[in-house]
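To the team - NAP complex, inputs and output below.
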Amino acid sequence: MARTVLITGCSQDGIGESLAISFQRANCEVIATARDACKMKRLAESGIRTLEIDISSDDSVNAAVQKLAEENISIDILVNNAGIINNGPLVETSLDTAQKVINTNVIGSFRLTKALVPSMIKSKEGLVINVSSVVGEVPLPFGGFYAISKSALNTLSTVLRTELEPFNIKVMVLEPGAVKSNIANNHLPYTASEASPYHPIKDLIANRLQLSQIHSTAPGREAFADDVVRYALKRSPPKLLITGGKAWLFKILTKLPSSLVQWLFSYRFGLKKLKNIVSTQRKTN
Ligand SMILES: NC(=O)c1ccc[n+]([C@@H]2O[C@H](COP(=O)([O-])OP(=O)(O)OC[C@H]3O[C@@H](n4cnc5c(N)ncnc54)[C@H](OP(=O)(O)O)[C@@H]3O)[C@@H](O)[C@H]2O)c1
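Output:
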């Protein structure tokens, strides 16, 4: 029997949209969701069922789950894909931004999982795929709360996997490398003000946001999504799947000593340059 897959964050030109198309191609019944149905026009036109879900809202999640129950639809695979990114140094991150990132990437994914797992338990099987990030394991500077949220999502997944194992519900963490999408356009904004101690490297900080988009040429989003679906539909899906542009680099970085990684990132992201500027200023003052 065809498996029913519900995916969050399926706006046009993002990972969710490509996953919806790939799961459909693999003969699954797909329910593509996003907080704004207009952004799923293309999926709807290609015959994929769409449904509005804002994962940050109890009302929205409850309404969607009730609708599915009324139609006797049970979800076999839940893909918690929706997410947002922020930019900027940690100490300059507003509490509002920090809360938004955690509320979406961690609590939002948890909200929908919590709402759908009871029906998976009834069905005696299920798969939850949490879309994390390589930065959940190797945190880059200037997007600290995004990395914190993905790291938390990884921990959440580990606990969930153990607790749901008795019910034959599996949990897979997907850590995409660089994949072309709208992620950099949808970020929570940050600009170093002239008074900011980070002002001298403000352009490097702004560029950091584009990192996943500059290096996202291979594989394309479609090939990436096909790869994910191939693994997700295995009898025993992997606990962790790292794939996408530059995934190999992050696999290497996870093996290096943390002091070496810090040293590399200081050069790569302008912190060494900032240190030199600060030390020159100290000498001249
Ligand atoms: N692209 C990469 O290189 C990359 C790398 C590592 C991990 N990821 C992860 O992959 C996932 C998909 O990201 P993407 O690259 O496809 O970015 P994207 O194009 O910005 O897509 C993100 C999706 O999440 C949705 N979303 C945000 N807040 C939501 C909420 N409260 N409720 C429901 N949907 C919400 C967005 O909706 P709107 O369109 O309405 O904003 C959009 O549909 C994210 O979890 C991201 O962290 C991406």
